[in-house]
Amino acid sequence: MKTILYLVRWVLGMLLMSSLSVWASAGESSVMGAHVVAAVLTSGIFIAAFFTAVALWFQTRRLHDIRNAGGSSKWMAILPPVLRMERILFSLLWAGFALLTALVLSGMFFGEVVWGRALVFNHKVVFTLVAWVVFGVLLLGRVMAGWRGLVAVRATIFGFALLFLAYAGTHFVLDVLLRR
Question: What is the pLDDT of residues 13-63, one digit of tens each?
Fold first, then answer.
C-alpha cells in the first residue's frame, strides 16, 4: 500500500513540477498557464484512477473466479483490500473531477482569449465534456445510489478513454489527418 501511494505521489509531484515550469514559461498569459497546470494535474490523477480501476477489476475478477478458489498471484498480494482500493479510486475520482471542472472553466477563459469565443465545439471539447458528464454521473451515482465495484471500474475506464481521445485524438486529427 505504501509503495502504491509513494508512486502516485511521485508521479503527481513530477507532473506538478513540469506543469509549473510550463506555467513559468507561458509568460504573460496566466490563464494559459493555469489551464496547462490544471490539464497536467488532471491527466495525472485520471491516469492514477485508471490504473487503480484496472487493478480493482483484476481483484474483483480474482475474487469471483471459482476455479481459482480465492488464490492470489504475487502482484495481487501487494495490493490493498478491495474496499480500500475502492476508497482510493473514488478519492482520485473526486480530485480528478474537481480539477477537470477547473480545466473546463479555465479552457472557456483560454478559448475566449485565443478564439474570441468561450467554447469552440471541436472534438477535444466534446470528448472532454462527455468525460466530465461520465465522471459526474458516476460520482452522483456513488453518493445517491452507492455505486461501486465493476460499475465504478467500467465508468472510470470509459471516462479515461474519452479523455485520452480528447488529447490523443486532437493530435491524431491535426498531425495525421490534416497534416498541420
Answer: 665 555 555 555 555 466 677 777 778 889 889 999 999 999 999 888 887
Distance, CA of 80 to CA of 53 (rounded, Å): 13
Q: Where are the domains of the chain?
A: 2-177
Nearest to 85 by CA among 65, 64, 46, 58: 58
Q: Which of 165, 156, 158, 159 is nearest to 124 (CA)?
A: 165
Would the pTM count as exceeding 0.70? yes
Long-range pairs of 13-22 with CB within 8 A, sequence gap ≥ 24: 15/40, 15/41, 15/43, 15/44, 16/40, 16/41
2-177: CATH topology: Four Helix Bundle (Hemerythrin (Met), subunit A) (1.20.120)
Report the C-alpha gap between 33 and 27 in whole angstroms. 8
